[in-house]
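User: I'll paste a sequence; please echo it back and then give the predicted structure.

Assistant: Echoing your sequence first, then the prediction.
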Amino acid sequence: MREPSSMRQFLKYTLASLTGSILFFLLAGFLITLGAMGLMGVLIASLARDGGVPTVEKDSVLIYDLATLVPDSPTFQGPESFVLNGPIAPQVALRQAVLALEAAAEDDRIVALYLKGSPTTLGIGLANQQELAQAITRFKESGKPILAYAVGWSEREYALVSLADTLYLHPFGELEMNGLYSETLYQADALEKLGVGVQVTRTGAYKSAVEPFTNNAMSPEEREQTQRLLQDLWQGLLSDMSQARSLTPQQIQAIANTQGFLFGEAAKTQGLVDELAYEDEVVAALRELTGEEATDGEEEGADFRQIDLPTYATTVEDDWANRTAKAKVAVVYAEGPIVYGEGGTDGLSPGLIAGDALAHQLRQLRRDDQVKAVVLRVNSPGGSALASEVILREVQLIQAEGIPVVVSMGDVAASGGYWIAASADAIVAQPGTITGSIGVFSLFLNLEDLSDTVGFNWETVKTAELADMFTLSRPKTVQELAILQSTVDSLYGAFLDRVEAGRQLPRAQVADLAQGRVWSGQASYDLGLVDELGGLQVALEKAVELAELGDDWRLVSYPEPSDWQQFWATFLGSQAQPNPDPLTAQVQQIWGEHLTLVQTLNDPRGLYMRLPFTLRID
């Protein structure tokens, strides 16, 4: 019996109710102040009919602002998030972005593609970037010019914009070319000084998610796996950059080793950019492409005929989704840490994979006679062990009905994210995907020393020796740790079982590849953990092939947004969140990682299959 958990649940729901009430009244006041109640009716009505399609003018330039968010699936913002955080940044889902670029290549109204640099973080992960780069390459093959400009490029941005026919850099700008690094904050001494005790159970020498709490320095195993991962990702970037710019990987590596940054003329001299130019000069070049007359004066010449990628994507129809065939190929998006339970009130918590909610969605697809194949798009560092197994069970039940399941891995599909993928009929990943991390851990804190320091006193009454084994008031005993370790070991064995059966690999080979070790998509393909390299398009084609559907099928995406979510998307869609300054963005990222971890550690047994949450690659 764990009575404190009931109290926590009571407090949790009480606070949630109170917070919801406060947000409701704040939002209602906000809407009334703006006189938006009438607007709500108009917007709700607009959901029942086709919205206005943006006009694409003849001789327009398609703009891809690199700060644009490109998630796997659209992110829907609720009113509480709007009140607390403001509107989200412009976004376009990956498949829609790829379709838009392919359509633009054949669209007579689009004369060029402009890759616009941004002073903030690149809005796309590495694996998704590789898929988008393939679409940009196909655009380039159409013969239409691609221009790129910024006051500065990072390595990842440069790997994308190096595809441009003309790559501009501000005369006082810089090109960062100093390689990748990963930095982890170790907190063992700090926690000890605060009086917070930490105990862990884990399997796998490379399962390092707990090390920042228990160590003061990086373990040899963690250093080894991180070095291998970074090297794999860096080699991929070197290959992309060198091929696009007709340079050798050795030339770029030499710059990273000896110079780090190339400023203005140096970047041009060494062949990494084509021209040094101010923004008005780039605009003049774009106006020439659109056939607009050159103008005198920066204010008049600071614009050209254009349409941005998210807006243009709304004008492009998905032919696969618009077919009239009865047979369905379902693509199910699973993005974020895996948590136990239903998630939000609608089961569709943005940025989280709620185990019960996703299982329910998969169960509905299994019972739909028209669903002939499923593509599970996984972009997750893992999380709750129990929730991962709940999801995997539904995947296996779909396969038992003779319906093929193909997993498409996004930027990350590791630990619990790999668990839910393990039994798929095929796994497809990009070379830059981060995957593997086949291992299990549990982490327990105790506040005994902290309580002594501040004057707290814990009193316990129990009916069995192990009744309070999950208390925060004291460390775990040797007996309790042994019990918990046996649970972790058992779960790890089950993990190996699933990988062995699903990937049809010898047990000894699986055990050697596991140990919690993180691999790149390229390494996973070479080792047999991944079946094919490619993006979502390749995974869809593979699913159609396995289901033997030919062209007689249509694409349906899940989860489908509710009317309420669509309403808020319409109401808030015209708002654009200003990009924070670089320092603010960095602080938000660091604290956001810690907050996300705390929010997602909700497994009932405290057992987790999760990627090291501190892994940050810059």
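The longest helix spans residues 3-34. Residues 1-18, 31-50, 297-301, 573-588 have pLDDT under 50 and may be disordered.
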